């Protein structure tokens, strides 16, 4: 080993030892400039609203601005693909949704959804409700499945986009219980609502806030809630688990993520900031109004385990159900 090589090796060992011996130094030095969070979907949409609700209070305890940059396109992959290209220093984040682990099964993406990203903080889960047109003679999820089995191919459901959590909810129910329902495609939920209310569609998995107004008015009937607990606004409607169908529950999550190899102390610094923001009443109120719940806290490692499980689960569903990407 020559002198240059020896000095390089000693320097590398010294740097590693310093990091291991004093990881707090990284967290104390971070951040010393503004950060940014990329939003893979349009301004004003649910992902944008959730992102702003969480990161705005984070700025105070981080001591630096967090700039929200919506960059929609390519089914959410345009923004996501920018993270593996950025430095692994904690200054570039993305708000990952369930699409992060679904889209790679539907189309080619320029990154590895698991290997290239480090989930930092699970900050919200969206609530949704399984509803039917009141003309359909079913009042429970069990009765819906029984009716579908007795009437194969006669039920149509609202599909707001292939690979969305609402689409997956219907397809997972079909796949788990071997029932035949036809998805009718729309560009989002709102365009399909008139057909659901007028009975041209019989089934709709809808976002919580949107479903509540129609259920309370009697225009739709709620069968079950896709959430960990009942909604305060629909106290008589059970969750999927309470109805006996936990294995068909789709959890639509929102996770702040950074590039893999970001130093653990920095990951923990961002995670702690997010957890603190979620304790603030204003943050929780904004998320509730957006149709989301504050989830039970998870460590970055636990969130990564959730990602891996969902990646495998929905990959299997996509293959078995023959789900295709949007054309």
TrEMBL record:
<dbReference type="InterPro" id="IPR005064">
    <property type="entry name" value="BUG"/>
</dbReference>
<protein>
    <recommendedName>
        <fullName>MFS transporter</fullName>
    </recommendedName>
</protein>
<dbReference type="InterPro" id="IPR006311">
    <property type="entry name" value="TAT_signal"/>
</dbReference>
<comment type="similarity">
    <text>Belongs to the UPF0065 (bug) family.</text>
</comment>
<dbReference type="InterPro" id="IPR042100">
    <property type="entry name" value="Bug_dom1"/>
</dbReference>
<dbReference type="Pfam" id="PF03401">
    <property type="entry name" value="TctC"/>
</dbReference>
